[in-house]
Amino acid sequence: MARMSDPSGPASPPPGPILIVGNSYPPHTLGGYELLCRDHVAWLRARGHPVTVLTSTYGVQPKRTHIETGAHGEHVVRALDFHWRDFKIERPTGFELIAGERRQRLALEHVVTQDRPRAVELWHMAALSKSLIAVLARYRLPTIAVVGENWPTWDVQTDNWLRLMRHGPRRDQLLRPGVRSFVAHTIAPAEMNGAFERVRPAYCSEFLKKDVESRFAPWRGRGVTVHNGIDLATMSRERDPSEPLGRPLRLLYCGRVERRKGVATAVEAMSLLKKQGIDATLDIVGWRDEAFAAELRALAASTGVAGAVQWLEPRARESLPDLYRAHDVLVFPAIWEEPFGLVPLEAMATGCIVVGSGTGGSAEVMIDGKTALLHERENAGSLADRIAELTRDPGLVATLRTGARAMADEHDIETYHRALASLLEEAARA
Questions:
Q1: Are strands 329-332 and 353-356 parallel, antiparallel or unpaired?
Q2: What is d(CA 199, CA 262) in angstroms, rounded to the nearest whole number?
Q3: What pLDDT is stored for residue 160 in this prediction?
Q4: Does residue 6 carry a pLDDT above 50?
Q5: In whole angstroms, what is the distance from residue 263 CA to residue 333 CA?
Q6: Which pTM value belongs to this model?
Q7: Do 41 and 70 form a contact (C-beta atoms < 8 A)?
Q8: Residue 263 CB neighbours (<10 A)
Q9: Per-residue pLDDT tens digits for 324-357
Q10: What's the rounded Cα separation, in Å, for the pair 197 and 220?
Q11: Ordered domains of the chain (ranges, CATH)
Q12: 421: buried, middle or exposed (CB in 10 Å: 19+, 13-18, 0-12)?
């Protein structure tokens, strides 16, 4: 299906309470996905919708229910188990698995019966129990999934509860209808029974849509693409397209510091820029995998650029526009297939030039020579050469800033919210 980008859609989803389900929620977050969810909740609340957010206990005491009121008046229930720790998936087994499935089913059923949502939005569901989706299907609630990563292609098959029901040691007994009914009502649904088919997915990029639908049969041909948006009123900063680059050249990496983000490529490129006689600094800003960060520090030291690489703590969203504005170039050297990438769009809105690998869905906004410069994946020499081009060609700098600003303007957050609202309305009618 075509990308949903028409801002003339409905200003509000179907009337009534909305339930949001996801693996984390501010202030306890892992990245931009959760912040975008919070922005959408704020948009819903501004239009008078009661919103309940059911999320995991990430950031608080696990296996206990924590209830609070969010920043925008939303009802936040932290009760789900997040099967993730320190960049690794840790699936529960045995009694812990059974007890967890029952506890989470009861938590979801309590929210549904108490708050009576009219529609549901699934956000980041990776490393959460997938039986929750089957519970929602029982209530026949209109449901969409806001898909920002390819979790359906790997996380469903590796869900331990569903695997136990399919391949458990007493599979023949579990297949009996009476047994499965008993399990479903005392612990959690024992099978999905078309639950995924009741969900309408909205993907953050056309690349992600094709990837998921080619490998996850229940959603094949069912989804739409809704590109992520940014709050232009907040993120924009004025910068003349012809403004000279700084001396030294100010480079920025902003995002999670983990291996698949390609930060090592940026650190290696610093030494190559030095060999070309280009004076540059690199600020690394974001939440870190400390073990990987130690490798990067050692790499910087061994290549003689440790003094030019500065490590900064994660920044609040509100401070990011000034951070981008204070730099000349954002490096985005992802080595995995990036689903989309909000950071390049945010940088584009401030005149900070983007140089990156353009993997996956990020290529849908990073157009080589027009809105960004692209380099070969995991190739520090290629990254350094593209950055060096900027120092030699002021005209290229102006062209990229102008094109990037136009691209950012096409992805206003209001368009994004309205597209999701339109999908909820369609789901309710269906």
A1: parallel
A2: 33
A3: 92
A4: no
A5: 7
A6: 0.90
A7: yes
A8: 28
A9: 999 999 999 999 999 998 999 999 999 999 999 9
A10: 9
A11: 18-229+413-429 (3.40.50.2000), 232-409 (3.40.50.2000)
A12: buried
